């Protein structure tokens, strides 16, 4: 919150052949109460950008502490799980031809949760490579997903996690980014919102030829004034 001190620490946990895992830890300190706590932990995968036709091979990371050795080992397991998840989801998508029937009277149609937003990428939104900041795209995705989730609850949704956030391609200054969000499913105290991002330059916009650049699944929950979790209604796909 405003007035609190945020500390962000990042380090390369492990370098693979042409990619690396960067661990990110965010902590906060409240100056008035002197309370310190962890806000978020994340793992980002970066790919070494090729120069010409040759790929850049990364050198191994030098391990100094016990924590370095532990994260180095866990990086391999996280990579294995991540690649395994992709295969599992592809299999489910190929086999999901059945339509479930929902007969609950209070179920809310997912059509009511669909939200679309369009953003124009301007120079302050771009990094030193000329590409749109990944964090800027994530911020726009969170905004549209939050609006989608709020249509199911009478309170402000709180973001808990961002899953399977992946860059499928770049976007640049001048591109129009179209964000589409919809609630995929609700659980007892949480809701999953899927967001798809498509990019257009001027020519692609006229021809309606979109570039799919991002997708992610955002998990929200809501709390009342006492900090208690609130339940979400069922949805009808």
TrEMBL record:
Gene of this entry: Acot12_1
Main location: cytoplasm
Pathway: Lipid metabolism; fatty acid metabolism
Domain HotDog ACOT-type as annotated: residue spans: 1-52, 111-226
Reactions mediated catalytically: butanoyl-CoA + H2O = butanoate + CoA + H(+)
Record InterPro entries: Cytosol_ACT, HOTDOG_ACOT, HotDog_dom_sf, Thioestr_dom
GO (cellular component) term, any one: cytosol
Protein name: ACO12 thioesterase
Pfam families: 4HBT (PF03061)
GO molecular function: acetyl-CoA hydrolase activity; carboxylic ester hydrolase activity
Source organism, top-level taxon: Eukaryota
Subcellular locations according to the entry: Cytoplasm
Annotated keywords: Cytoplasm, Fatty acid metabolism, Hydrolase, Lipid metabolism, Repeat, Serine esterase
Amino-acid biosynthesis recorded as keyword: no
Biological process (GO), any one: fatty acid metabolic process
């Amino acid at each position: 919150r405003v007035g609190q001190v945020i500390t962000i620490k990042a380090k390369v946990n492990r370098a693979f052949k042409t990619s690396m895992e960067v661990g990110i830890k965010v902590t906060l300190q409240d100056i008035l109460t002197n309370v310190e706590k962890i806000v978020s932990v994340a793992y980002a995968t970066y790919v070494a950008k090729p120069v010409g036709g040759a790929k850049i091979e990364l050198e191994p990371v030098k391990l100094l502490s016990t924590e370095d050795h532990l994260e180095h080992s866990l990086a391999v397991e996280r990579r294995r799980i991540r690649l395994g998840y992709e295969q599992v989801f592809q299999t489910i998508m190929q086999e999901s031809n059945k339509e479930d029937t929902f007969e609950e009277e209070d179920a809310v149609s997912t059509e009511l949760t669909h939200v679309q937003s369009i953003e124009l990428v301007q120079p302050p939104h771009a990094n030193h490579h000329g590409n749109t900041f990944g964090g800027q795209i994530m911020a726009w995705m969170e905004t549209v997903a939050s609006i989608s989730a709020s249509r199911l609850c009478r309170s402000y949704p709180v973001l808990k996690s961002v899953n399977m956030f992946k860059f499928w391609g770049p976007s640049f200054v001048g591109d129009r980014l179209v964000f589409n969000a919809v609630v995929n499913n609700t659980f007892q105290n949480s809701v999953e919102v899927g967001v798809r991002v498509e990019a257009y330059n001027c020519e692609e916009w006229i021809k309606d030829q979109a570039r799919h650049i991002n997708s992610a699944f955002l998990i929200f929950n809501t709390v009342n004034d006492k900090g208690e979790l609130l339940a979400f209604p069922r949805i009808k796909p």
